[in-house]
Amino acid sequence: MSRAPHAISIRGALMACAGLVATPAFSGNWELSLDLRAVSSDGRDSFLDNGQGKLRFDDDDDGLRLGRLRAAWNQPLGETFSAHIEASTWDDKDKNPIDLTEAWLEWRPYPRAGWRTRVRLGAFYPPMSLESRAIGWESPYTITPTTISSWIGEEIRTIGLEAQVDWLGTRLGHDFDFQLTGAVFGWNDPAGTMLAMHGFALHDRQTTLFGRVGELQTNLELAKKELFHEIDGRPGFYVGAQARYLDRAILNVLHYDNRADPAAPAPEIRDYAWETSFDAAALRIETANEWTFLVQALEGTTAIDPFMWLQWDFDSQSVLVAKRWGRHLVGAHYDEFAIDFQQDFLMPGGETGKAWALAYSYDTGEHWRVALEWLRVESDVPARTVFLGESAFATESKLELSVRYSLSGSF
Amino acid sequence: MGAFCAAAHAQVATLEVRVAQRDGQPLPGAVVTVERESAPLGPAPPLKAIMDQVNLAFAPDVLVIPVHSSVQFPNSDAVGHQVYSFSSARQFQLPLYRGKPYPPVQFDQPGVVTLGCNIHDNMLAYVIVTAAPFFGRTDAQGKWLAAEVPEGRYRVRVWHPLLNESREVEGVAEVGGGHATLELELSNSLRPAPLGTRPHSWDY
């Protein structure tokens, strides 16, 4: 963050001389970052290229790649409102060269007697990942987040209205804070399509609001992979709760249901409204000597009813451990995932798999971050044999170096 | 850690207070207030104090002031802060600001005032408003010294943001001529301290 204390103090003095009671602090903040990657991967054809591979970069992607070029803008609007916009480009085969991942308007009135309300309107992530806590909804622990966060980044976005109520117990002399969240949203009816098409994947490629998941699908029988559409006119909802012990431990639970009508077709994107609901829970503990422990679990179901009922049950669990020594951080996670296709007498579907990631990063704290990650995914996907003539079982691994340069400032 | 010098008195002495944690380690940064039980001396004269906001943190983390003092809350960061308290001793809020746009906040009631920022939830600090004539904070050795304390029987109270005691940490010191020492020890371990070391970019 660039800072001009001298200028600020002069400005403050001028304001005081002018007898102004309140100085609006309404100038906005911007962030810009360029993340370049050097990749060595033996992955199967990536899900981004309409394959059944689990990685963002497959064995055709070795070499220098664009990790992410990101621009964000945060703008206070008056005393209690603010706007936030996130734009990114990933230089792959998405529909738009640059697109938004999130854009919201927030109302955060002053807290009263230990209670605070927050309301967000726009497009954003539901509050369920205690992992994707860094700016741009990235994981600070590894380059590639866990299966659960990867899937949320790929298929889930709240496009609607969210309200949160906080009880700020720590400001009243207690050890705990509590939070309740509720949201009503639309434009996420295709959520679940990707679980059925290619299952879980491990990647940091967030799907953009007006884009699609990777390359255009040339098979006209298959969905266009555009996930943020309203199909049936029925709003979805989620409710969540969070308990925090000081700033050491956070427990987060969320129930999500997009309340889609599984028989509602969307021919323009060659898709249906997928009736998707899930429960997610996460617990993050941080210690004084910079250890982080994070456990996450996700369980849900998605279904469509084009001519008969087709249902996929899915779940994933992960354990993440990280340790920081000043600017150095080592992070690792282990993930398990499974999709159970209930009508597999019709066609192959579903999968099981597990993944390991180990990463080291060095953050200068100002502009540069360098990270190195090793990732390995084992998965058993019967559809690979039937549709692609590949072996169902695949072990994919990747070594990735990330160099990120960030700038920020205010205007 | 200024000990306030009370009215001149025939018999004055120094009072040293040592605060130890449960394991015997010294407790630095503890707020010590000292009040005479017989013939109370009245509060120290009010101060004009500053609670700054630097690098997304309040500075200092704990401010001790005599009752009727005023505190200025400048914001030295490039981003806006919105400071609030809903502690019973003083409730106030300063609308989103940068620099030093507001007049100082007056504190007329003794007590613990917990400060927060509505934009940055990790920002936490305390203003301790005291009616005691002598007050201060313990040093790295858990020690605090008051000079020129008139003789008498004094009630010594200790406060720290991380105290985890079921009752008030206090003691009685008899101050006559010379040097009086009071040692206080906590019964329980401290609560975990705020981490405060995480990069700001982790609070998306």
Average pLDDT score of chain A:
93
The rounded Rg of chain B comes to 18 Å
Which structural category do the helix and sheet elements of chain A fall into?
A: mainly beta
Question: Main sheet of chain B, how many strands, which sense, barrel?
Answer: 5 strands, mixed
**β-sheet strand percentage of chain B:** over 45%
Q: Which fold name corresponds to the CATH topology of chain A?
A: Porin
Determine the CATH topology of the largest domain in chain B.
Answer: Immunoglobulin-like
Q: What is the H level of CATH, i.e. the homologous superfamily of chain A?
A: Porin
At CATH level 2, the architecture of the largest domain in chain B is Sandwich
The count of domains of chain A is: 1
Q: What is the CATH C-level name of chain A?
A: Mainly Beta
Specify Rg of chain A, calculated over alpha carbons: 22 Å
Total number of β-strand segments of chain A? Answer: 18
Termini separation of chain A (Å)?
12 Å
Spatial strand arrangement across the major sheet of chain A: 1-2-3-4-5-6-7-8-9-12-13-14-15-16-17-18
Name the assembly state: heterodimer
Strand order of the largest sheet of chain B: 6-12-11-8-9
Task: Name the shape of chain B in a single word.
Answer: globular
